[in-house]
Please model this.
Amino acid sequence: MTLPSTDQVWDWLHQVPDPEIPVISLTDLGIIRDVAFEGETCVVTVTPTYSGCPATSIINLDIETALRDHGLRDIELRRQLSPAWTTDWMTQEGRDKLAAYGIAPPQPAGGPDKCPHCGSHHVERLSQFGSTPCKAQWRCTDCLEPFDYFKCI
Amino acid sequence: MGAAEKLAEMTQEQLVQYLLRLGDNTLVLGHRVSEWCGKSPVLEEDIALANTALDLLGQTQLWLGRAADVQGEGKSADDLAFLRDVWDFRNVLLVELPNGDFGQTLMRQLLFDAYHAVLLAELVNSTDATISAIAEKASKEVAYHLERSRDTVIGLGDGTEESHNRMQAALDLLWPYVGEMFHSDAVDAAAVAAGIGPDPASLRPGFDAIVTAALAEATLVKPDSDFAHKGGRTGAMHTEHLGHMLCQMQWLQRAYPGNKW
Model:
């Protein structure tokens, strides 16, 4: 068979949603570190977000399923720990999608810029830990709504 | 050390022991912390503890996975976690102690997190590329653990009379288990010689800086005694509590060997 280009594979992976936060894709998240062909084998290098994140095995399964659906047969997933994943690798598109979904995107300052519901800058932290390993719990002191913040790592 | 100098090598058995110490600390503490799941004082704390346990168990997969690879007997991280008995565990005694109340759990967490953060910062420089990569990954997670355990110990120590007294009692109870983390033996000496990891004793000043400042802010008094219970990380002796914990943690694999999700 004719092998697709790596750009084509990247494009396919861009369509694979994160299993926990389906508004963003795996490439938005920045966890796909490399796509290459070694002979006939498509090698996708993936780095975990958090070492214990239960989504990791689902992500691997989703990658494999998506690429098989596009006709690839020989697929190898490689785990790469170093350099460790950082939220700096999240794309601007991913950040915008998170905000639109109601999750404040990561900020260099270490806390959310504004409430994703009403836009107020008056926000306070409830806990550095949230509903998934990658999120913290914050609250808006104006509209009083709690919200998730995608924390920096 | 000059680049031209050849580093000594750890024996395979020493490296396995070294990795078991790292993985058993995170496994046993991860399990202990997970015991709070669904019964913490408030929802936010329940979620925080569950997340901390999850990070520690994720790190365990990496450490014990590496230990199993080096061992070369075809075992997995799960085999090491679920099919070893008490005397084969190499965790420090501190992490196997029962949770006690919420304050005691968070005091133990601060003492371990401070040690863990200082240790991982050194292991990032390991000559073993896998150890270095795991440490780099884990240290990012542990920074959040330490931030939280420190804040919580300060909040409870410098809180009400009741919470203050409980935190002081927790500190008095746990302090004799601190020394073991900084005790060096032949395995550590071999790790230092091979550039695999730091001398545990060298981590003490960094630990003291973090803990002394936190305790001062928490208005808690650090005990004077340097007496240290030890034996966990060498496997010479564990407390009676570890066996009871393993009964619960391992029962499914013991009762239904090889069972999978």
Remarks:
- Residues 213 and 251 of chain B are 41 Å apart (CA to CA).
- The two ends of chain B are 48 Å apart (CA to CA).
